[in-house]
Design brief:
The complex is a heterodimer. Chain A is 35% helix and 32% strand. In chain A, a hairpin with a 4-residue loop joins strand 1 and strand 2. In chain B, the strands form four sheets. In chain B, strands 6-5-8-9 form a four-stranded parallel sheet, sandwiched between helices. Chain B has a three-stranded parallel sheet with strand order 7-11-10, with helices on one face. A two-stranded antiparallel ribbon of chain B has the order 1-4. The chains are: A alpha+beta, B alpha/beta.
Chain lengths: 146, 444
């Protein structure tokens, strides 16, 4: 879903994500990337946004039951929020470590869940916030300046 | 920016305005306007997909011709290894090379030889520390242009070495001007090409200021004459110089095996739509364990080029047989493939950065672009999503973009038009049923 906030000059893209729906995986971040290209945002910036959005999207699909990803694109920055209902993360510090993953084997066999998602997201973004509650879900907020 | 040269053109008389080319174009560069296909030049990457698909043969390629040879004092033919694949194994390479000299060329130099030089150079490049991986092959100019437009963030991953034909041309221009005592400008160097993308590169070089190639002649353009000559049987000997290693470059996978990638993590991707999909994955950082990606716009590799004559599977078989025989022959006489090359052959000093060409943006001004995105998204929700192409745009998404850009209107969509006509008809019917009170006998 796309909205444009006329006062603030921003584009809001909102996607609902379903856990374990690998068929549509990547579509939401692909859409964000296309809009950024249409806006003429610099290619390196687009790449960082696309990677963080993709990793975020995949995290919800792999780990959560369902979630919502929202991208707010303004002329100066893009902010992406992910809000999921799922198992949550017990030890965020541990989850942020490269290579640490709780993804089950079948997910890893598909080439996902290598434990690089969160570190990649943090590396690609200018601001990164994560909150999680066990048994409830995880919220991530990322900002990338153009 | 200079006007962009394209080799792919339209023969308007033959075009029926069907949407087949528009729908197959990987760049959505074609629209049907005024009953004819129209190519948006800034988007076209000269991959030749439209040439291949057009049932009316309305797409053509501007290439040079044998009569252009008259403008130069000394002419050299650079046959792509794909040319050898057009003939069965009973036609020897030296016969093909001699045949070219009979068509009017003074000298022949195999592009396969250039490919061997480039293979060695890529091998060295891959050993360099700190290069971005996966390294993406830059031999196919259509792929390089695709990256410039759609994946500019991957430009740094491209092999920074000229394509084999450019290297072959550089070597020959220097050699011929020395041996023939001629000004380099008096020498015509002609690439016998399987594709339009390489024709474009002559006029619009990638990664260098000016190409060393004078022009390109499509394989299909000279095939008939060459075929006739070879039927007659040629006895003269024009020795081949290249080994099977260079010749194999014509087939998908040949480049990476020439570079010696058998034991490394390599991926061979061919067909422009597949290449685009894989580049998308690379851009997302999903191919991190891969060292090298060989990318070719044509299915099957250069043997699948739109300017070839032979069925691509027959061509692949021809080439496989040929390469195997060459390998056996060379081993028998103790001839080895090229072992070393000179830096000067690569023209490192002439190289310049490959620039991004971000033509996807809807407007220079980001605020205006945002407005256009809004219009486009709203429009897209209202369009039927059948992607029928009747409006002249390849997909509903493309029509929505065209409407946002002000170059198309909602009623170009036949379904939208029908809706409007139906609404209008209902309104007219309702109006027709209304009677002025003086005549309306039912109401009292």
């Amino acid at each position: 879903m796309v909205e444009v906030n006329k006062e603030e000059k921003e584009i809001i893209l909102k996607f609902t994500l379903q856990g374990l729906d690998f068929e549509t995986a990547g579509e939401a971040s692909g859409k964000i990337k296309r809009v950024l290209q249409q806006l003429g945002v610099g290619s390196d910036v687009i790449r960082r946004i696309a990677i963080s959005a993709y990793e975020g999207e995949m995290n919800v699909i792999i780990h959560a039951v369902r979630g919502v990803m929202q991208a707010v694109i303004s002329p100066v920055c893009t902010s992406i929020t992910l809000d999921d209902e799922g198992p949550g993360i017990g030890d965020i510090e541990l989850a942020m470590r490269e290579g640490y993953s709780t993804a089950p084997d079948y997910v890893r066999e598909m080439g996902f869940g290598a434990g690089m998602g969160l570190p990649n997201m943090m590396r690609c973004t200018d601001k990164f916030e994560i909150q999680s509650k066990l048994g409830v879900g995880t919220k991530i907020r990322m900002i990338i300046f153009h | 920016m200079n006007e962009y040269f394209h080799s792919v053109r339209l023969i308007a008389d033959r075009c029926k305005g069907c949407v087949i080319c528009a729908k197959r174009c990987p760049m959505e560069a074609i629209r049907i306007r005024g009953g004819k296909a129209q190519i948006t030049e800034s988007r076209c990457i000269d991959c030749g997909e439209c040439i291949r698909r057009c049932p009316n043969h309305a797409k053509t390629v501007v290439t040079d011709d044998l009569k252009n040879l008259a403008d130069y004092r000394f002419n050299i033919a650079l046959p792509a290894p794909t040319l050898y694949a057009q003939f069965g194994i009973t036609t020897r390479i030296d016969e093909i090379l001699f045949g070219l000299t009979q068509l009017g060329f003074d000298k022949v130099f195999e592009v396969a030889r250039g490919a061997e030089i480039v293979s060695l150079a890529i091998k060295d490049y891959l050993k360099r520390p700190g290069i971005k991986r996966p390294v993406i092959s830059s031999a196919c100019p259509a792929v390089v242009r695709l990256i410039q437009i759609k994946f500019p963030e991957l430009i740094d991953y491209l092999v920074p070495i000229d394509a084999p034909v450019e290297v072959a041309a550089r070597v020959m221009r220097a050699k011929a001007s020395r041996e023939q005592n001629l000004n380099p400008e008096d020498i015509g160097i002609w690439f016998i090409t399987p594709c339009p993308a390489k024709m474009t590169s002559v006029k619009q070089p990638l990664g260098s200021e000016k190409s060393n190639i004078t022009g390109a002649i499509g394989i299909s353009r000279i095939y008939g004459e060459l075929f006739k000559l070879l039927q007659g049987g040629l006895t003269a000997d024009t020795r081949r110089h290249s080994s099977w290693i260079g010749v194999n470059w014509a087939v998908a996978g040949g480049e990476s095996s020439a570079v010696g990638m058998e034991n490394m993590n390599r991926l061979v991707v061919h067909g422009i739509h597949s290449v685009s999909d894989v580049l998308e994955q690379i851009a997302l950082g999903r191919l991190n364990g891969i060292d090298y990606v060989e990318t070719l716009a044509c299915a099957g590799g250069c043997i699948g080029g739109p300017l070839t004559v032979q069925n691509r599977f027959v061509a692949e078989y021809n080439l496989q047989q040929r390469a195997r025989k060459m390998q056996q022959e060379d081993i028998a006489i103790g001839r080895k493939p090229l072992q070393e090359y000179k830096e000067s052959e690569l023209g490192v000093n002439e190289r310049r950065a490959i620039e991004p060409r971000p033509i996807m943006r809807l407007d220079e001004d980001i605020c205006k672009a945002m407005y256009k995105v809004e219009v486009m998204e709203k429009m897209l929700q209202q369009l039927p999503g059948l992607d029928c192409g009747s409006c002249g745009s390849p997909t509903c998404k493309a029509l929505a973009e065209d409407i946002a850009q002000g170059v198309a209107s909602e009623t170009d969509c036949v379904f939208k038009l029908r809706e409007r006509v139906r609404d209008l008809a209902q309104e007219m019917k309702a109006l027709a049923e209304k009677m002025p009170p003086s005549l309306d006998k039912d109401s009292s």
